[in-house]
Amino acid sequence: MKLDNDIALARRLADVAGAVIRPYFRAVAAERKGDATPVTLADRAAEEAMRRILTAEVPRDTVIGEEFGAVSGSSGRSWVLDPIDGTAGFLAGRPIFGTLIALMVEGFPVLGVIDQPITGERWIGAAGMATTLNGKPVRTRPCRELSEATLATTGPHYFDDHDGGHFMGLAAQTDHKRMVMGGDCYNYAMLATGQLDVVCEAGLKIHDWAALVPIVEGAGGTMADWNGEPLHAGSDGHVIAVGDSARLDDVVEALACGH
To answer: I need a surface site. Which of 66, 171, 178, 194 has the fewest CB within 10 A?
Structure first.
């Protein structure tokens, strides 16, 4: 699958989103959505800027965005946008949020971008290519035993009681003294760069995870649902990322044993 033109387009989307977002960083108050999650003018303006480019250049492609929903196309291709993944961190002035841009073909992600517009870091992953950070290849790190793994999640309050029990079952089998809380998409970028071993989350929407899959897998890792199955447009939002693919079965087993 030749994705050079799509990668170039994704870079332009990240450029325009970053240009919109940067002036708002540490300078904007939050509103509240109907579901009580924070949202800012930056979210909406960045998504609008990206959608304008996609409408002009790939009008037959579907566009799915966190802020403005889905506009269906006829090509079998979908661009999935999350202008600010990690809005709470953004509002706290912490540069560990990211703009997520994904291209899915027939329901499976083939191209992903994590762009951190404040630090100037950009991860790009695409099918058949090595993941890069600012143009230089990155790799996940080996993990000999699950007990040695550093686990990350955005926060325990994002799990309901049932999922939280399973997550704690996993946490108990990892190096829990080094467990990382907070980070949203930045955790997956750090896993792809060899800084973390496992990320585990539940309740994610497609715009939260689609861009992450090509980045993690192009760096040598694996992303899956909690049953170890590949992620696709119909996945239920239970997501794991594993830097060393040899540990995937261990993670799935640990999650299943939790209660």
So the answer is: 178
**What is the Cα 16 distance to its own chain's centre?**
19
Q: What residues form the annotated binding site?
A: 66, 82, 84-85, 208
pLDDT at 38 over 70: no
Does the domain spanning 4-137 belong to CATH 3.10.450.50? no
pLDDT, tens only, 63-110 = 999 999 999 999 999 999 999 999 888 988 999 999 999 999 999 999
Domain ranges of the chain: 4-137, 146-257
Q: Which residues pair with 77 in a beta bridge?
A: 105
pLDDT of residue 88: 85
Q: Tell me what pLDDT residue 29 has.
A: 59
Known binding-site residues for Mg(2+) equal: 66, 82, 84-85, 208
> What stretches of the chain show up as alpha helix (H) in DSSP?
4-21, 41-57, 87-91, 161-173, 185-192, 206-209, 212-218, 248-257
Between the CA of residue 120 and those of 42, 115, 140, 177, what are the distances in Å? Answer: 17, 8, 21, 30
Strands (DSSP E) found in 58-171: 62-65, 69-71, 77-85, 98-105, 108-116, 121-126, 132-133, 136-137, 151-153
The encoded tokens of residue 80 equal 């999935």
Q: How far apart are CA 88 and CA 181, in angstroms?
A: 13
pTM of full prediction above 0.85: yes
Distance CA 14, CA 53 (A): 11
Closest by Cα among 76, 86, 11, 1 to 43: 86
Distance CA 31, CA 44 (A): 12
Architecture of the domain made up of 146-257: 3-Layer(aba) Sandwich (3.40)
